[in-house]
Amino acid sequence: MTILIPSYEPDERLLTLIHNLKEEAKGTSILIVDDGSGEQYKPIFDSAAEAGCTVLRHSVNQGKGTALKTGFNYVRQHGSADGVICADSDGQHLPEDILKMTDAVRNNRNHIVLGSRQFTGKVPLRSRFGNSATRMVYALATGKPIQDTQTGLRGYSADMLDWLCRVPGERFEYEMNMLLEAPKAGYDFYEVPIETVYLEDNKSSHFRPLADSARIYFPFLKFVTSSGFSAVVDFVLLFLLQWLTSNLLVSVIGARVISSIFNFTMNRRYVFNEGQGMSFKKSLPRYFSLVAVILIANYALLYLFHESIGIPLFIAKLVTEVVLFAFSYLVQRRFVY
């Protein structure tokens, strides 16, 4: 089993982690990727190499996703057949938790093994909020609840390495893209509870809250944007067709058909990566079947909330749209494209 540690501008905690891993699991293969940290940090990486680690170097910082892919590609060519455990270099993953992952990887082939923090005790507010938000977005996007979507402690069997090198993303968004792409690639998840460790309120983290969060949420934001543009097209066409035909039924149907075609084209081409291999002939009828189901569900939910339960129409409409929006994203990602 290879322990892969991507590292950018590390401190002595990296060397402490290496020492502890060597003590607790003699013969463990440790691979470190220096992601363009610069000359100032060369002594730390040299010490890691002297301790028996393999050190790969990027001349400039390329991001965590690229560093992981560099490591995966190296293991694919030179590593063992057991698999890879990825850990962070900032001391937030305990050696015993890292080593606990090895058995889980061996016993759960075709699974991404996640070291899941429980977020108990003193957790920085930024980290607690970020993990809760990402967990909710991921559950809405995939229908698969995961306790810790942002964990950097992950394990993979060796036969997953080719796929891991193809997952898009260069920085922190890579790890979220991996979780989004895994179900379609046939991989499930197995979570291993680990300790929640934040040192000095996570000051050593290189995660940029705005820029990197935008990258993480980008797949979902693309869907939101596409849906928003489609709603505008539907709205404008409704009034335009009503002005031209003075027939409300024709206007409603015409606007919805054209806006649906627009939405299908946008989602297929830009949101879901040109169909992920799904043919046009298959995705088109699936999409419009979904449109029909959503129309029926829209009426049914509105009737339930407003007529049966007595919720005000505005609130009933809002709740209905939120539920169907999440349902539409989930179905399109998993079955349409």
Instruction: Give the % helix.
Output: 55-70%
* Number of discrete helical segments: 11
Q: Which blocks of ≥5 consecutive residues have pLDDT under 50?
A: none
The CATH architecture of the largest domain can be given as Alpha-Beta Complex
Find the CATH topology of the largest domain: Spore Coat Polysaccharide Biosynthesis Protein SpsA, Chain A
CATH evolutionary superfamily of the largest domain: Spore Coat Polysaccharide Biosynthesis Protein SpsA, Chain A
Structural account:
It is elongated and about 80 Å long. Helix 8 packs antiparallel against helix 9 (248-271). The protein has a 7-stranded mixed β-sheet with strand order 3-2-1-4-6-5-7, with helices on both faces. The relative contact order is 0.10. The protein contains 11 helices and 7 strands. The model has no long low-confidence stretch (mean pLDDT 80). Helix 2 (42-50) links the parallel strand 2 and strand 3. It has helices at residues 12-24, 42-50, 64-78, 95-107, 125-142, 161-166, 173-185, 209-245, 248-271, 280-308, 313-336; strands spanning 2-7, 29-35, 54-58, 83-86, 111-117, 154-157, 188-194. By secondary structure, it is of the alpha/beta class. It folds into 2 domains: 2-207, Spore Coat Polysaccharide Biosynthesis Protein SpsA, Chain A, CATH 3.90.550.10; 218-336.
